[in-house]
Amino acid sequence: MSYGFTHYYQKLHKKIMEARKHGIIILCANGNDIFGQKEYPASYQETISIGVMKSKKSKSIFNSNDNADLYILLNNRSKKNINNTSEATALVTNQLIKNIKMIFQIWTSKN
Questions:
Q1: pLDDT given at position 102
Q2: pLDDT tens across 52-110, in order?
Q3: In the chain, how many domains are there?
């Protein structure tokens, strides 16, 4: 998910909790504003929030807060050198899917 808002929506949270009960992994961008506020859905406990680093020592201003579960550095990964949490979330999702596919292939070849 690459959207966010500062208001807590109970209906959305219920749907996310329901998805987690079914084993769905939910990755969310940790930012759409730069005011240090809690953003949803990234702040829901059932999600994994993805932040972005500007450099190895500095977080990007695109993070809404310092509470991301995972931060990645996009330099050399981004063709346009954009450092935003939506792009970071997409790249993490892509890598997670590749890893799951590889694990599944190893598991099925052994069975």
A1: 86
A2: 988 888 888 788 888 899 999 876 555 665 678 888 899 999 999 998 888 878 877 77
A3: 1
Alpha helices in 1-111 (DSSP H): 10-21, 85-110
Q: Show the domain range for 83.
A: 10-110
Q: Give domain status of residue 61, yes or no.
A: yes
* CA-CA-CA-CA torsion sign (14, 17, 19, 22): negative
Greater confidence, 31 or 41? Answer: 41
Tokens of residue 65, six digits: 């807060």
Is residue 1 in a domain? no
What is the reported pTM?
A: 0.81
DSSP reduced 3-state for 104: helix
Nearest 5 degrees, angle CA 87-CA 95-CA 93?
A: 50
Q: Give alpha helix (H) positions in 6-84.
A: 10-21
Q: Does 3 fall in a domain?
A: no
